[in-house]
Design brief:
heterodimer, A: 15 helices, B: mainly alpha, Non-ribosomal Peptide Synthetase Peptidyl Carrier Protein, Chain A, 3 helices
């Protein structure tokens, strides 16, 4: 028996293609066979979480039972009562396993602790939003036969994109018309092939071939002031390129596979390197994550702050919420200084960006606006972003704090 | 409430938030043109709540359904009925 990480190598795609064939044929005949889809999902979960990673498999099963009980239990409660504290406590319980994994990882410096498994953060996002929308009364019904496929949808299990319950269920239950579905297959295959280019060629060149070289060169000059060197600048660019191609490539595989299964999983990237400013960047980079934080953290927190008039000025309220939002995102990445600084960095970057946008609005026609300023904006944004990725990479930790 | 009154209120809320009179561009996409962002959205929902008494949960706020003045007016009308 062979076991894989999702989308690890060509053989995985070969098995994937064989497994998807019956799904394609049945959808083309106007039918979705959910039992077959579930069996395929389980099979692919087994390929990832069986074998050497069986402990993660057990953790995944326990986690699924735990979160399902919580979600359905909360719905049962919500139909009768709506106490704020019960809601907060439920959210606390849904996040608890993830929080424990993050804390254990930080303390023991292990990749995964006993209760962790690949994809736990992404499953937690799905559960939390389902509970929040249940609280809001937007989700009134939950079916196990829909919730589990949503939670455990195998194309997106390890790293997203993060879909929404109501959106997913609509696609899941609906059978696309033949011509529409053919268009989806075409797109899906197109995405997967761009994914090959990104993940297996470009990410390989940047991540596997170039990155160790520039890192070694930068480490050799660590005695410089703050370890600054041209090689460090190289690390910044090469790491940023690797991060993008690796994650965008993975995301394209996940979205492409979903499309072939008749589910329009949302895209994760939309030309992020053409962003005009940091706010624009977060509308283009890891979109399913940033939109999740926007909808379930930022807007809700801000709504509460503004309604209760916690802060005198609306701008202060918005700024504090931006920073809290991005800080939380930093914590979500992991409890190390560089993830937290990365979060704070982006929080402050958005605050500065917002102040600039307000300034521009108040002084119309006084600032030049042409092709050159546009390219300057793109250039600046890309560099602010790349610098933040250098922080995120953890390389500075190695460069500054870890002795040879 | 009369429809014309609703339209007037929505437009005045939007003018307050975006600083632009939108009565002659009812189909402009507020997010694509950067006239609004998530902060402005929260402000708008709060003001609509205050002035028209509509209660929109953040969960129900789907950007694509609220991205032009016309669509916002439609949503508000829909909620009030």
């Amino acid at each position: 028996m062979i076991f894989f990480q999702p989308y690890e190598n060509p053989f995985y795609f070969f098995i994937l293609f064989i497994a998807l064939l019956p799904i394609m044929i049945s959808i083309l005949h106007g039918k979705k066979i959910h039992i077959y889809e579930s069996l395929i999902s389980l099979f692919f979960l087994f390929l990832t979480f069986g074998g050497p990673s069986w402990k993660q498999g057990i953790a995944l099963i326990i986690y699924t039972i735990y979160e399902t009980c919580l979600t359905f239990g909360y719905l049962y409660y919500r139909k009768r009562k709506n106490n704020q504290l019960v809601f907060y406590f439920t959210i606390f319980l849904t996040i608890l396993p993830l929080a424990l994994v993050k804390i254990a990882t930080a303390i023991h410096n292990q990749k995964l602790s006993l209760i962790g498994f690949l994809g736990i953060s992404y499953l937690t996002f799905r559960v939390v939003q389902t509970v929040m929308e249940t609280r809001d009364g937007v989700i009134k019904q939950l079916k196990l036969s829909q919730f589990l496929p949503f939670l455990l949808f195998f194309p997106t299990i390890s790293s997203g994109p993060i879909d929404r319950y109501r959106r997913f269920i609509k696609d899941y239950e609906q059978v696309p018309k033949q011509d529409e579905y053919l268009e989806m297959i075409k797109k899906g295959i197109h995405y997967i092939f761009i994914g090959f280019l990104y993940k297996f060629i470009l990410a390989y060149i940047f991540g596997t071939l170039l990155l160790p070289e520039v890192q070694a060169a930068a480490l050799a000059q660590r005695h410089n002031f703050l370890g600054l060197s041209w090689s460090l600048l190289g690390v910044m660019y090469v790491y940023s390129a690797d991060l993008f191609f690796d994650f965008a490539g993975y995301s394209l595989f996940a979205v492409g596979t979903s499309y072939i299964m008749g589910v329009k999983t949302p895209m994760n990237f939309n030309r992020p390197w053409q962003s005009l400013n940091i706010k624009d960047f977060w509308n283009r980079w890891h979109m399913s994550l940033s939109f999740w934080f926007r909808d379930y953290v930022y807007m809700r927190l801000l709504f509460m702050f503004m309604k209760k008039k916690t802060f005198k000025s609306r701008i202060t309220a918005a700024n504090i919420t931006y920073i809290l939002n991005m800080l939380l995102m930093g914590f979500w990445h992991g409890l190390t200084w560089y993830y937290i600084v990365y979060g704070l960095f982006h929080g402050f970057a958005i605050v500065i960006n917002d102040a600039w946008l307000r300034f521009k609005k108040q002084h119309p026609n006084k600032l030049p606006h042409n092709r050159a300023t546009k390219y300057l904006a793109i250039f600046l944004t890309a560099h602010v972003v790349c610098f933040s990725f250098l922080i995120f990479s953890g390389f500075l930790d190695k460069l500054w704090f870890i002795p040879k | 409430m009369e429809k014309s009154k609703i339209k007037e209120t929505v437009l005045s809320v939007l003018q307050d938030i975006t600083g632009t009179d939108l009565s002659d561009q009812m189909d402009v996409n507020l997010f694509d043109t950067a006239l609004m962002d998530s902060m402005a959205t929260v402000e708008m929902l709060l003001q609509l709540q205050e002035k028209l008494g509509i209660d929109v949960q953040i969960s129900e706020f789907e950007r694509s359904q609220w991205d032009t003045p016309n669509k916002i007016i439609d949503r508000v009308n829909g909620t009030l009925q």
